[in-house]
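Structural biology now treats backbone shape like a language. To illustrate, our science desk offers a sequence and the tokens encoding its fold:
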Amino acid sequence: MPFVKGQPRPPGAGRKPGSRNLTSQKLKEIVFKALEQQEGGAIGYLKTQAVQEPRAFMALIGKLLPTQITGEDGAPVRITQIELVPLARQDAVEDAVGDG
């Protein structure tokens, strides 16, 4: 039965709420599999990218972090300390990954 504008959908029509697009799910699985097969595994690969491609790495971090952060019991976040940390040298990253 074709859809008629203004009429309710028949029961069971369409995708179930929360179900994922199969193409997106497959692509995600392929990317994770490739990431696991990198030398040093996923963590080693990400450590290397953090040094070699910091803009792309920080964009990834931005996608993963929540867009709104609250403090304890829903109160605003209180910043109590800001620490400057030097960037890792390339040879230190290679040692951590196991390439050196």
Remarks:
- The chain is about 45% helix and 0% strand.
